[in-house]
Amino acid sequence: MSERRSYPPGVPCWVDLSTPDTQGAAGFYGALFGWRAGFEAEPEAHGYGLFHLRGKKVAGIGPVFHEDLPAGWHSYVAVADLAETLQKASAAGGHVALPQTQITHAGRMAGLRDRENAFLPLWQAEQHHGCELVNEPGAFTWSELTTRDPAAAQDFYAAVFGWAPGGDAYYTRWLVDDKAVGGMLPMPIDVPAEVPPHWVVYFAVDDVEQAVAKVKELGGGQMSPFIDSPAGRLAVVNDPWHAEFAVISGVQEHH
């Protein structure tokens, strides 16, 4: 189902971009995915904006929290109780990276870091429930953790969200009620040690080669070769401000 109005707890529900150049990035993603950006005029929005596709909310965009922080895409996991989830994360060996914050009337957010320091934001919905369009070209379709300790991650996310591991010895599919909501794979051995474990946001496209060519034309870059996975052909890319994301030709029915 492409259109969504709500998400169960434990399911990735929203994605947003932190960037040092919100106007420039809005132009980049508008040209790449056909998104239209709108920015809130209210001071409490702090420069945050929304991307729309066919009139539906598909992602957010805002300035980086501090000029020293890198640009990046983040996927938010829906939770019923932020305080309880953060307590579970701390008890499981993670820690609170961002304390609970009220976001106007939209909802409440917080951020955790898992045992290996991968950052993952959380969302407790009020008026804003998340992406209104998923699993189709130009929309969010998958979240994937790359980590050096998959066993520790399995234990951590099971304790925090109740995720059950599926898949095979190499690739883990996170399951909620037997439905895949995300994935995990080991960090490749050739990745420099200073690159921390992290989550990658995937967007569906009709044609991966065309999408990557467009990324390059718009000033971005290709970070991985083209990969033929069981889920579809994919590539990891970055925008001109070095925010990493992936494009995939297969639509992941995980929501």
Brief sketch in words of this structure:
The chain is α+β, with helices and mostly antiparallel strands and 255 residues long.
Account of the 3D structure:
With 255 residues, the chain is α+β, with helices and mostly antiparallel strands. The protein has two domains: 114 residues, 2,3-Dihydroxybiphenyl 1,2-Dioxygenase, domain 1; 109 residues, 2,3-Dihydroxybiphenyl 1,2-Dioxygenase, domain 1 (Roll), CATH 3.10.180.10. The protein contains four helices and 17 strands. The strands form two sheets. Strands 9, 10, 11, 12, 13, 14, 15, 16 and 17 form a nine-stranded mixed sheet that branches. Strands 2-3-4-1-5-8-7-6 form an eight-stranded mixed sheet, covered by helices on one side. A hairpin with a 5-residue loop joins strand 16 and strand 17. Helix 2 packs antiparallel against helix 3. The longest helix has 12 residues. The chain is globular. The chain starts with 11 loop residues before the first strand and ends in a 7-residue tail after the last strand. The mean pLDDT is 93.
